[in-house]
Amino acid sequence: MATESAWDVHEAVDFPRGYHVEITDGKIIMRPQGLTQMKVIFKAARQIEDQLAERGDYISDVMVDFPSSLYGYAPDLAVVAPGAELNGRGRYEWHDLEAVLEVVSKSNQDNDFVKKLGLYAECAIPIYVVIDPSTALCTLHSSPQSGRYELSEPVPFGEDLVLPLDGRTITIRTGGFPRD
């Protein structure tokens, strides 16, 4: 039997349009997307799409099922593994993701730096990148082992962010990312 999804638990809720909605520790968190955050996501998404060449897909702000009804995340940007298929609920699951990129907003730092870092490592998502426009720094977390990422590499804006995916590499130029 499939784990109940946090999104299913809250399916009766009519979420307002224009807000980024996530579920953390069973609590619904809604926040408007900031202009800087949106621009970073769009710039990175275009580069990822150009390099995937039909070997996988990407999603942005799309509900993903995680193995707990307490967490329902819709990553800012995620690379979906080649051959991954939607589940019976019409969503991807955590094990379909090769990389997740989250762009930090000032109001949501604890979620990106602590809670998501822990959950994504526990779910063994191979790469988790935190992009922080206020410090002009990306942090690439990789090699999840025993619920934590073994490697963390800082990549300042202006340097290439290299995502070593299964059988291919995606390079994101960060020089054009706006700063807060």
What's the short version?
With 180 residues, this protein is α+β, with helices and mostly antiparallel strands. It contains three helices and 13 strands.
Plain-language structure description:
This protein has 180 residues and is of the alpha+beta class. The chain has three helices and 13 strands, in the order H-E-E-H-E-E-E-E-E-E-H-E-E-E-E-E. It has helices spanning 6-9, 35-52, 109-122; strands spanning 19-24, 27-32, 57-59, 64-65, 72-73, 77-80, 92-93, 97-103, 127-132, 137-145, 148-156, 160-165, 168-173. The chain has a six-stranded mixed beta sheet with strand order 3-6-8-9-10-11. Strand 9 (127-132) and strand 10 form a beta hairpin. It starts with 5 loop residues before the first helix and ends in a 7-residue tail after the last strand.
List segments where confidence is low: pLDDT < 50 over at least 5 consecutive residues: none
Mean pLDDT score: 86
Q: Helix/strand-derived class?
A: alpha+beta
Number of strands: 13
Helix proportion range: 10-25%
Q: How far is the first residue's CA from the last residue's CA? A: 45 Å
Strand content: 35-45%
Main sheet summary: 6 strands, mixed
> Helix count?
3
Sheet with the most strands: spatial strand order: 3-6-8-9-10-11
Radius of gyration (Å): 15 Å
Q: What series of H and E elements makes up the topology?
A: HEEHEEEEEEHEEEEE
So what's the overall shape? Answer: globular
Spell out the key features of this protein.
three-stranded mixed sheet; 3 helices; 38% strand; 180 residues; alpha+beta
Question: How is the topology of this model organized?
Answer:
Blueprint (H helix, E strand, L loop, with lengths): L5 H4 L9 E6 L2 E6 L2 H18 L4 E3 L4 E2 L6 E2 L3 E4 L11 E2 L3 E7 L5 H14 L4 E6 L4 E9 L2 E9 L3 E6 L2 E6 L7
Parallel strand pairs: 4-7, 8-9
Antiparallel strand pairs: 1-2, 3-6, 4-5, 6-8, 9-10, 10-11, 12-13
